[in-house]
Structures are given as C-alpha cells and as structure tokens.
Amino acid sequence: MAVGEGHMIYVEECAAVDGLPVIFLHGGPGSGCSPNQRRLFDPTRYRAIMLDQRGCGRSRPLGYTQANTTAHLVADLEYLREALGIQRWLVFGGSWGGLLALAYAQTYPERVLGLVLRGIFLGSRQEINAYARAAALVAGRFSSHSDENALTPWLAAVMSHEAPLALSAICAWLDYERLLMGEAPLDDVPDAGQVAKVRLQMHYLANDCFLLPGQLLAGIEQLRHLPAAIVQGLADPVCPPMVAETLHLAWPEAAWWPVADGGHGALSPPIARACIDALDWVAAAEGGKQCT
C-alpha cells in the first residue's frame, strides 16, 4: 500500500473478515512481522491485520529513513484503518510496537476498542542510554564518556561511511540483542533486512523516538476509558519491568498482567500465553462495555 513520500508498506490480513479487527504492531523499530506472529490470533475470533512499518521487513524502500517518524507511522495506521473500512479496532503492540500503539491510541482514541501492550518501552532517554551502555559493555567497544549520550558512539559507527566500521557496529548491536534473547551470535554477515533494522533503530533512538519527554505518560488521560492490558515479563532483560510498573502507576485502570518467568520474546510460551489471554480479556471487556 502506498502511503506517500515514496513509501510502500506491506500489509496482510489473517482469518475471516467478519472477525473482531485487531491491528498488530511489531517491535524494533525496524523488525517487521513474521509468520509465526499470526499464531497469537484465534482465526475463529479475530480479523488480524499485520503490517511492516515504513522502511522495514517487506516494505519498500528498505531502510529508508526519510519521512519516517513516529507521527508518520501513526498516520499510516489511520490511513490503513480507513482503507480497510474498519470503524474501530483493537490495538496490540509489543516493545517498540507498544510505544507505537500508545502513540496511535492517544492520537485517535475514538478509533480504538482496547489495547494489549507487551514488554513496555516508553522511548525515554533513560531507557535508551541504559540499553546503549549495556551493549557497549558487552561489546567492549562503542562506549561513551557521557551518561547522557551513550548512544552517540553507536550512532556514529553504524551510520559511518567506513564500511568495516559500520559492519562491525551493526554486528555488535545485533549480537547484543541476540544475547538478551537467548540466541547465538551471528554466524554470517548481516543481511539487508538486519542492516536496515539497525539503521532504523539508530534513526529512531537518536531522535528520542520522535516524542516529547514524558509524552506517552502524559497522554494516558486520553485512554482511561478503554479496556487495556499490560503484559510484562518480570525477567525481561530488554524492557525492564520497572518501566511497565511506571506505566501502570500512571494508568491503574489498565489490567496488570505480570509473567513471573517471562522474558522479552513475544513467542516464548509464557509470554505468548499471557498475550493470548490478555487479548481475549480485553476483547471480552470491550464487548461488555458495548452491551452496557
């Protein structure tokens, strides 16, 4: 689907068109969707809509950062909703996708039936710096002398015109993520999709995810009337539970769905089960509100 500024985004729908519509927002930024993520949605109940956000996955141009901001992605979601003829839909996002879900819902609350948010990331400078510092410590490189600008060495290396330096930084960044996800280091040169993913992440993280400080927490007032669930693995090394707790403190109306042995991966059995249960709960709560 053409969304403007040269971007074409990949969209797929799963299950019957008369199911309860739910838009799934992938993480990253820059990761794209995978076929296995369809397994989160009961095909007898939901009309699942999945898209690869601007510049990533099967969307084109791959890795394109121009006209690629959080506001552009929010506008794409609303354009997609209108194109599909959907009045209101459930919004389901994890990690970066949860941030995008909040940004969209706060912009268009009247179009949202409810939210499921997994592995909370709010895009704060503190979160970004903590991740960049830890990645540099593990890599033994790309460290910063400033606690406020821990991402700067990574950004300079990843975006460098010196190919060996850029490739080295991209591999180190990907390997740190793989370590946190319990996966082995890369055994080959990163492919085009992986390179695009890291470059898009640097583009968003270096710009504080194109959000004002505290913007998402301040916008919770727009969402208090909506059924919502916060699914958080208490052993999540990527998105620390304290961030999710901060969100829940600001939004006590949202159901708190902790997973004691859960990490970050959305498709790990404990997190996947919690997400499926939370989605069913939000869908039932939304239905009850409509009945009353």
Keywords:
292 residues; alpha/beta; Rossmann fold; 2 domains; seven-stranded mixed β-sheet; 9 strands; 40% helix; globular
List the helices and strands and how they pair.
Layout: E1 2-4, E2 7-8, E3 10-14, E4 20-25, E5 46-52, H1 70-83, E6 89-95, H2 96-107, E7 112-120, H3 125-139, H4 152-158, H5 163-180, H6 192-205, H7 215-218, E8 228-233, H8 241-250, E9 255-259, H9 269-291
Q: Any idea of the CATH topology of the largest domain?
A: Rossmann fold
Mean pLDDT, rounded to whole units?
96
- The value of Rg in angstroms is 18 Å
Portion in strands: 15-25%
* Oligomeric nature of the chains: single chain
- The low-pLDDT segments are none
CATH architecture of the largest domain: 3-Layer(aba) Sandwich
Q: What structural category arises from helix and sheet content?
A: alpha/beta
Strand order of the largest sheet: 3-5-4-6-7-8-9
CATH class group of the largest domain = Alpha Beta
Count of spatially separate domains: 2
In CATH, the homologous superfamily of the largest domain goes by the name Alpha/Beta hydrolase fold, catalytic domain
Summarize the biggest pleated sheet. 7 strands, mixed
Helix content: 40-55%
* Net shape: globular
Q: First CA to last CA: what distance? A: 37 Å
DSSP, total strands: 9
Question: Mind explaining what this structure looks like?
Answer:
The protein has 292 residues and is α/β, with parallel strands linked by helices. It folds into 2 domains: 203 residues, 3-Layer(aba) Sandwich (Rossmann fold); 85 residues, no CATH class. It has 9 helices and 9 strands. A 7-stranded mixed sheet has the order 3-5-4-6-7-8-9, sandwiched between helices. Strands 1-2 form a two-stranded antiparallel ribbon. β8, α8 and β9 form a beta-alpha-beta unit. The longest helix has 23 residues. The radius of gyration is 18 Å and the shape is globular. The mean pLDDT is 96.
